[in-house]
Design goal:
The protein is mainly alpha-helical. The chain folds into 2 domains: 133 residues, no CATH class; 36 residues, no CATH class. The protein contains 10 helices and 3 strands, in the order H-H-H-H-E-H-H-E-H-H-H-H-E. It has a 3-stranded parallel sheet with strand order 1-2-3. The protein is elongated, with a radius of gyration of 19 Å. The model has no long low-confidence stretch (mean pLDDT 90).
């Protein structure tokens, strides 16, 4: 069975973001290349470099990840974006990373959860013309912590400030549920939004 480019990218991304070792990476890459005739020349050149690289350093080393990221970002028709989880230190940082990835060519930016949800439907942003999207989220544990309980409590408390135009009853309930250990963190809500789009391949 032939393996198409998207499956190859998905498999390699899974290995790279989950800390696979160099032997597993090289073995898997060899297997994928042996079952594919569809990989475009740029990826074939990189694959050859990866197969012959010296992996005595920490894996995946910076150059390998940078090469992979550049190849993916240079081929938007494949439908993948790469989110650098370590760039997300708080809620504004999350939107800064989303806008860097998706909205660089737009004259406006996404700044709330509704906008993020709309973005994943397509129609605007970097992947507006692709048939199937894929999100490769590196260092997701860092993002999960940065958008965790402490950040979310501060977010709800800000919505409850005097004079705030937001629905105080709603955010008060969300705050109390989170304080009781039952509520969602901001990261949980982002996760829920992504998972509400089952057509999106999410690699983390």
């Amino acid at each position: 069975m032939k393996t198409d480019e998207r499956n190859i990218i998905s498999t390699l991304a899974q290995l790279l973001v989950n800390g696979a070792g160099p032997v597993e990476f090289r073995t898997t890459l060899t297997s994928l290349l042996n079952t594919s005739t569809l990989l475009r020349p740029g990826f074939l050149v990189l694959a050859d470099q990866w197969l012959n690289a010296d992996y005595t350093a920490a894996f995946p080393h910076e150059k390998l990840w940078a090469d992979f990221k550049s190849a993916v970002e240079s081929n938007p028709d494949l439908g993948f974006v790469i989110i650098e989880g370590r760039q997300i230190g708080d809620i504004p940082g999350f939107y800064a990373e989303i806008n860097r990835v998706y909205m660089a060519d737009e004259d406006w930016q996404v700044g709330n959860l509704d906008g993020f949800n709309d973005l994943l439907y397509g129609g605007f942003g970097k992947l507006k013309d692709v048939k199937q999207q894929g999100i490769i989220w590196k260092d997701i544990a860092h993002s999960r912590k940065s958008l965790g309980v402490e950040t979310t409590l501060a977010y709800y408390q800000d919505k409850l400030q005097s004079g705030s135009p937001f629905n105080h009853a709603h955010f008060q309930q969300q705050l109390e549920e989170l304080q009781a250990g039952r509520g969602q963190t901001y990261f949980d809500i982002v996760t829920e939004i992504i998972q509400s789009h089952p057509e999106i391949i999410w690699i983390y």
